[in-house]
Write a structure and sequence with these properties.
By secondary structure, the protein is an alpha+beta fold. Helix content is 26%, strand content 21%. The chain has helices at 9-14, 50-54, 60-72, 85-100, 103-106, 159-184, 193-196, 267-272, 328-337, and strands at 41-42, 47-49, 75-79, 118-120, 135-142, 202-210, 220-225, 231-236, 243-247, 250-253, 261-265, 282-285, 292-300, 306-307, 325-326. Helix 3 packs across helix 6. It is globular, with a radius of gyration of 19 Å. Bound molecules: N-oxalylglycine (OGA) and nickel (II) ion.
């Protein structure tokens, strides 16, 4: 059960308080989070041309780039995805405009306790939880029946229509990526997409707003986590970095490629691929003088689908690593609430 909601970060800032204790990462629970965030190296993930993956004869080089990126980093960037730079700018703009509205106006879309959809901050499950320095607007967009239109902003005026267009375009990107992922592993083209559900596959959108933070040395925008999805498609801020990925025991900065989407696989693809593709642990750091926005799209299998390693990827040299799971997103939240890594639930 969720505890009573707390303030948004913007409200904390308006009231001019010191950074409240609840946001501070303590040494005893894992150390100072970001002693020097900018010292982290840039990650070298490839930028993949989606047009080459979508072609009827997919380029073998591009497929190999994809496979190796997902096996090492669990993510890649994609260009030529069918959305123009102007459209992406417009989409970033409506995001900024929404968060720039007065708090009172945004509260019309406030998330209710125990509901994930709506405007607000982190869901709080325990007194011990360290809060993320970010405000969000979380909306389910597909299947269309999941839409709670009363939570879709009417201001800026073009918000709903632009979001609708953006997510329609993302469904096309998702379809191409899932198929290419299957091919790169020598599997049936539709093995991932059959679990997803095509144009009406379950997609949730999380608009993230990270206000400047007076203590970037002690506070995170998003604490380390891996996503519980099949894949996540992220539109990053065009100017302000913040996202970092863990590889081995080192953090690396995700570079900004202005018109690219950053796509990472989630836990469910790690399970399906029997661990060949890695669901990467990532976090968002804060900075003291610039605000940052990002928009994450979460692609999730229908909750009645059973998720387990594809048989073709289990053999003597690669023994089965994961059990069969169902409704992994439900498991994810249960574990997350207890401060445990959700993937533990799936390990053999
Ligand atoms: C997330 C996430 C990264 C970002 O929303 O799950 O990891 O850059 N976001 O905002
Ligand atoms: Ni994430």
């Amino acid at each position: 059960m969720e505890l009573l909601g707390s303030k948004t970060v913007q409200e904390v800032l308006i009231q001019g308080e010191q950074v409240p204790e609840k946001y501070i990462h303590k040494v005893e629970d894992g150390g100072v989070p970001v002693p020097d965030a900018s010292a982290a190296q840039l990650m070298d993930v490839p930028v993949i041309d989606l047009a080459l993956l979508a072609a009827s004869s997919i380029s073998a080089d591009e497929l190999e780039k994809l496979r190796s990126a997902l096996a090492t980093w669990g993510c890649f960037q994609v260009i030529n995805h069918g959305m123009s730079p102007e459209f992406l700018d417009e989409f970033r703009e409506i995001t900024k405009q929404f968060f720039a509205l007065p708090v009172e106006d945004k509260k019309k879309y406030l998330r209710q306790v125990n509901d994930i959809q709506g405007y607000g901050n982190d869901m709080v499950f325990s007194e011990q939880q360290t809060l993320d320095w970010s405000d969000r607007l979380y909306l389910s967009v597909y299947p269309q029946d999941n839409r709670k239109l009363n939570l879709w902003p009417e201001n800026p005026k073009s918000f709903r229509q632009t979001l609708d267009q953006y997510t329609m375009d993302l469904q096309v990107v998702t379809k191409t990526v899932l198929k290419a992922m299957a091919r790169s592993l020598d599997l049936e083209d539709n093995c991932f997409s059959d679990l997803y559900g095509g144009e009406q596959g379950k997609m949730d959108i999380r608009f993230n707003f990270y206000p400047p933070c007076p203590r970037p040395d002690l506070v995170l925008g998003v604490k380390p986590h891996a996503d519980g999805t099949l894949i996540t498609l992220l539109l990053q801020d065009k100017e302000v970095e913040g996202l970092q990925f863990l590889k081995g025991d080192k953090w690396f900065r995700a570079p900004i490629v202005p018109d690219a989407l950053l796509i990472n696989v989630g836990d469910q693809v790690e399970i399906l691929s029997n661990g060949i593709f890695k669901s990467p642990v990532h976090k968002v750091v804060t900075n003291s003088d610039k605000e940052r926005i990002s928009v994450a799209a979460f692609c999730i299998p229908e909750s009645d689908k059973e998720i387990e390693p594809f048989e073709r990827l289990v053999n003597e040299s690669r023994p089965r690593l994961y059990k069969k799971v169902k409704n992994y997103v439900g498991i994810y939240f249960e574990y997350y609430q207890q401060g445990r890594r959700p993937m533990e639930a799936a390990k053999m």
